[in-house]
Design goal:
It is built from 13 helices and 17 strands. The protein is α+β, with helices and mostly antiparallel strands. Helix 1 packs across helix 3. The radius of gyration is 61 Å and the shape is rod-shaped. 30% of the residues are buried. The N terminus and C terminus are likely disordered.
Length: 577
């Protein structure tokens, strides 16, 4: 990436010198510490054909090839880069303008630039940066801002952007060589000059207390003249640059002068330092820092371009045209939209295919489900019929076993009544009803009132019954209107003998026809505290009934009453015992 990410990342910078293309990759540690020093991890260079800057339009492919060679020589594979163009091809001026908001400042800068630029503003790319005010370097108290202006021909910028396009690179920043060079002495407190010497040109920048004060550049053309002549010209241009600085900042003499790049033509680095020290009358030495040592002096400008990507750059000038950035953003947006559209179409096709497959699978599953449901319905119909018949048998068995869902089976109640009934032929039962709430109603006849009274007393003494009452006692003829079943006293069937007893003879069981009969109605309840209604011997001998389901039949609204009515209508009779 050309723009460094805060807290880490890297930047690839390309220096387009007069005779050489130099590329570096600078990396910041991913420690989250903004003050951590960066490192040069890769660098490479490639020469430019002579006179290429004089015909950029015709030499775009050669220039792009040199850029690719420089990147390849350094093993740099990044596609986004920042670059700089020679200072001598850019108009750089310092202007004093009234303090104003950014919107108004842009308009004032455009108006002020007309004084320094020889071309129409429509023919140049213009950028500016408001420099911080420092006491001692400018006249204070005038409420003016010092603004750095930079302008380059639009045709030059167009050729350079086309060159990077040919090289397959994405240009994100286009700065000026002298401004990038100044980043190496940004921490200088006193006026400090840095000079970059190249066989084709030289750049000069002066910085003091974190602010850029002065820049100048000059073409040397040393490759076409004798070394001594090239050396003398370079020294003259350096002396002329410092004279221009001293003329503008008379009260701020230079305190330090540092060199980068190559030595003066025909000399060694040590001889270059000595020559310039004698000419300038002050110590001059090559710059050595943690980032810039002797092997990297030729890459000082390229490294400075990478340092310019910091948020606190001395002069963050960017001559990359805004319309190109807009076009690139629009192109990227169109590509994203096309990509999204293609993805949507692919997803739609895949979705339709999956939907058709799912529909087909669902159709098969539906048809199979219909067939299975038809088979299930047939089996269910048969099962329901069988379950209905089975439940009918279970209900009948349960009714017979539990006596209409009572606490004691009806058979046990009958046995208990038989045990309490006096062993006499003078009394017999004609009807019995056993209601759900435990109420028992006994209807019968006797040959005497005493027999009925004895039956009541026997029931009261019996443990299984309680609340025994004699509801009615009278002549049998008086009850004919109350109960049709009692209008004619039936001949009681002879009672079955108890175990161990002999069956009474037919003569003794026959009821005298001339005797006066008495009808009676006795009511009582089953004692809820009685665990069993049977005598101990019978209870022990009684087999336990199998439990079906939960042991209880499902109550219904009318079935029990129907069975009770059936018992009432049939008029269960008990033979004499």
């Amino acid at each position: 990436m050309a723009a460094r990410v805060s807290g880490g990342g890297s930047c690839v910078a390309v220096d387009l010198d007069a005779t050489t293309v130099r590329a570096v990759e600078v990396e910041w540690p991913r420690s989250g510490n903004e003050s951590a020093p960066p490192q040069v991890v890769r660098m490479g260079s490639a020469p430019l054909p002579p006179g290429l800057w004089n015909d950029l339009s015709g030499g775009q492919e050669a220039f792009a090839s040199a850029i690719r060679q420089a990147l390849s020589a350094g093993g740099i594979t990044a596609r986004s880069v920042a670059a700089s163009i020679p200072r001598r091809l850019v108009t750089v001026r310092f202007a004093r303008l009234p303090h104003a908001p950014p919107e108004q400042m842009r308009n004032m800068v455009a108006f002020e630039a007309q004084q320094y630029i020889l071309f129409s503003l429509d023919e140049v790319i213009l950028d500016y940066h408001v420099l911080p005010e420092l006491s001692g370097f400018t006249a204070g108290g005038d409420d003016l801002d010092t603004v750095l202006l930079a302008a380059a021909r639009r045709t030059l910028i167009a050729d350079l952007t086309a060159i990077f396009d040919r090289a397959g690179l994405e240009l994100e920043r286009l700065s000026v060589s002298a401004l990038a060079l100044a980043e190496h002495v940004r921490d200088a407190l006193e006026p400090t000059a840095i000079v970059d010497i190249d066989p084709g040109d030289l750049d000069v920048a002066v910085v003091a207390d974190g602010r850029l004060l002065f820049t100048r550049s000059a073409a040397l053309h040393s490759e076409s003249v004798l070394p001594e002549s090239a050396r003398n010209r370079a020294v003259e241009e350096i002396a002329r640059s410092f004279a221009a600085y001293q003329n503008e900042f008379r009260n701020q003499p230079l305190a330090h002068v540092y060199l980068t790049g190559s030595a003066l033509p025909g000399t060694t680095p040590a001889e270059t330092e000595q020559i310039l020290s004698d000419v300038l009358g002050m110590p001059v030495s090559y710059l050595h820092t943690r980032l810039l040592d002797a092997p990297k002096l030729d890459y000082a400008t390229a490294i400075g371009i990478a340092l310019q990507t910091r948020p606190d750059s001395l002069a963050p000038i960017n001559l990359y045209p805004n319309e190109r950035a807009v076009q690139r953003a629009q192109k990227a947006r169109r590509q994203r939209m096309l990509l999204v559209g293609a993805m949507v179409v692919c997803l739609a096709i895949a979705g339709v295919s999956m939907a058709m497959q799912q529909l087909e699978a669902r159709g098969r599953a539906f048809r199979a489900t219909v067939r299975a449901n038809e088979a299930l319905n047939a089996v269910t119909t048969q099962l329901e019929a069988r379950e209905k018949a089975h439940r009918r048998l279970l209900d009948l068995e349960n009714d017979l076993t539990t006596g209409l869902d009572r606490a004691h089976p009806a058979v046990d109640v009958l046995v208990a009544l038989d045990q309490a009934l006096p062993r006499s032929t003078a009394i017999w039962l004609t009807q019995m009803s056993f209601e759900r709430n435990g109420l028992i109603t006994l209807r019968g006849e006797s040959r005497s009132e005493a027999a009925a009274t004895d039956f009541v007393l026997a029931l009261q003494k019996a443990g299984p019954f309680m609340d025994v009452r004699l509801g009615y006692l009278g002549d049998a003829e008086d009850t004919a209107g109350k109960n049709e079943s009692a209008s004619t006293a039936p001949s009681p069937s002879p009672a079955q003998p108890a175990p161990g007893q002999t069956k009474p003879s037919a003569s003794s069981a026959r009821k005298p026809a001339q005797a006066t009969l008495s009808s009676f109605i006795i009511t009582c309840r089953v004692n809820p505290k009685a665990q069993s209604l049977l005598p101990p011997k019978l209870a022990a001998a009684k087999p336990s009934a199998p439990v079906r389901g939960n042991g209880r039949s499902k109550p219904t609204s009318g079935r029990d009453n129907n069975v009770a009515d059936l018992m009432d209508d049939t008029g269960d009779e008990f033979g004499d015992q």
